[in-house]
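Our example copied in:
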Amino acid sequence: MDGTLIDSTQAVERAWQRWSNELGIRNPFGKQGHGRPAEDLVREVVPPERAAVAVIRLRQLEESDTNGVIALPGVQHLLRSLPAENWAIVTSCTRDLAFARLAAAGLPAPTHMITFDDVEAGKPSADPFLLGASRLGVDPARCLVVEDTVAGLISGRAAGCTTLAVTGTQPLHELRAHADHVTSSLEDLVLVGRANELEVVLGA
């Protein structure tokens, strides 16, 4: 969702920096943090006895700051073109944060949404996309995963999905190693309906 459908970069960086300042620690959210569940990152840098409180505080900061969150180019048109039963959002955000950012960006909430709250293991585990395919009622091999991070692409491939990397969040050479296809924008995608299936054409 973040980095593929919406640009939340500034809000994310503000929340993490404020959180780090409050705890008096170095901000752990670097390029390798993109795509991973925030709770996993927190537990890597905060002692176990303080982790639960630290996670709650980070969630408060993230959910209360959606200034500057916008839809990325081509996303509004793409989502309007997709039948509701044919797509899902699979995100490392919590459910509350995902809804807050979608609303801030003026995007519709999907019929199917998998969040950090729905799985035991987040990205790069295969679990999120396996659950997404299950909710859609299709074989993962027939699903296209659109991701902007290495963690997300690894997750999609582990689930057996075809992967499409969107550049911008992480270096191209890192994404390409885990992607079946690469694009710089969802504006490049064209949807073609074919006999009970939806074909995605890149660069048409």
